[in-house]
Design brief:
- α3 crosses α7 and α5 packs across α7.
- The N and C termini lie far apart (about 75 Å).
- This protein has about 170 residues and is mainly alpha-helical.
- It is built from seven helices and no strands.
- About 45% of the residues lie in helices and about 0% in strands.
Amino acid sequence: MKSIFLNRLGAAVVLSLGMAGVSWAAGSAVVPDTAPAHPAFSVPGMEKASAEVALKKGNAERGAVLAQQFCGICHQFKAGQESVGPDLVGIAGRKIASVTVYSYSPALVALNNQSWTDQKLSDWLTSPMHFAPGTRMSFPGLPSADQRADLIAFLHTLGHADEKASPPAQ
């Protein structure tokens, strides 16, 4: 190889890396790393709404089907069974991020002084990423208030945090 070729190759690499660095610095200076105070647009049905009206007509049987379809992939509905996510037994009224055998994201740990009320469950099911920015849960959310009400009605059939959980069936 001729040294002139190696000089050209070296110069091309150095200039390319230099331009990439300058481009990154210019982009970082122009576009902030923080999220905007107000979203540029909103998706219909994803806004925070009172869950009280919809919950009155929630159907636990339809909720069980939805739970298997959406939640059953990562969560269990019986105490003591391990899965990707924490089990959902007694979630109604339970403190957020309180299952001791599960490692929660910092976004949920920051909310552990609050409890899962029906409204908070509805807000979470609407959009977990909006409820707790930085959560590891990849579920996009349920835009339908009726589906959320059905799912929450089913979660109530799994018991409440103030009730004693029965031991898992053997």
